[in-house]
C-alpha cells in the first residue's frame, strides 16, 4: 500500500480485514498451507485488492508475526525491578494465561512458525527476544540471590511460564476434550498461580 499519505478509513478497514482473515487462515493451516486467494476470500476482497495492501503472502505473515511478538513481549518488558518480585512474576504469569484465553489464534500462529524452525523470525529470536530474556533473567537471578524469591534457573523459569500458559491455546482441542464441559479458564488461573507461588516463595 502506498505510504506517502495517511491511509483513509476504508484503507484502514481493509488492512484490518486482511490481517484478521490471515490470522484465522495462518493459525489453522500454517504458512505453507495458506494461500493468498484463501486469505482474500476470507477478508471479502479480491486478490488484486489484497495485493494493493500487501505485495505477498510473506508480507502479510510477517506483519502478523511482528505485531504478535511486540504485544507478546510487552508483559515481560513490564517486569519491574522496583516491584515486589513474587507479585511481579505472578502478575506476568496471569497476563500470559489471559493472552492464551483471549488470543489463542495468535499463539498457534507463533507455534506454527517455531515448529517449522522459525525461518522468518530467527533474527528476532536471536536478537530482540534473546536480549530481553537475558535482561529479565538477570533480574530474576538477582531476586533469587537476594532471597526475595526461591532459587530458580531464570531462563528455565521463563520457558516453563511460556510452555504452561501457552499450552491452553496451542492444545485447546485436547484440553477441552479432556475437561469436557468445564471451561479450562475457570480453574487454570488458580492452579497456575498456586503452582508458581509454591515454586517461587522463599
Describe this protein with a few key phrases:
202 residues, mainly alpha, Arc Repressor Mutant, subunit A, Tetracycline Repressor, domain 2, 2 domains, 10 helices, 78% helix, 0% strand
**SSE arrangement, N to C:** HHHHHHHHHH
Q: Report the sheet-strand fraction.
A: under 5%
Q: How much helix is in the residues?
A: over 70%
Intertermini distance: 54 Å
**What does the overall shape look like?**
globular
Largest sheet: none
Low-confidence stretches: none
| Overall pLDDT score | 93
Class by helix and strand content? mainly alpha
Counting structural domains, the number is 2
CATH class of the largest domain: Mainly Alpha
| Number of E-state strands | 0
Specify the CATH homologous superfamily of the largest domain: Tetracycline Repressor, domain 2
Radius of gyration: 19 Å
CATH architecture group name of the largest domain: Orthogonal Bundle
- How many helices does DSSP assign? 10
The CATH topology of the largest domain turns out to be: Tetracycline Repressor, domain 2
Topology record:
Layout: H1 9-33, H2 36-43, H3 47-53, H4 57-77, H5 85-102, H6 104-115, H7 122-145, H8 154-170, H9 172-179, H10 184-200
Description:
This protein is mostly helical and 202 residues long. It has two domains: 1-55, Orthogonal Bundle (Arc Repressor Mutant, subunit A), CATH 1.10.10; 65-200, Tetracycline Repressor, domain 2 (Orthogonal Bundle). The protein has ten helices and no strands. The chain has helices at residues 9-33, 36-43, 47-53, 57-77, 85-102, 104-115, 122-145, 154-170, 172-179, 184-200. Helix 1 (9-33) packs across helix 4, helix 5 (85-102) packs parallel to helix 8 (154-170) and helix 6 packs across helix 8. It is globular.
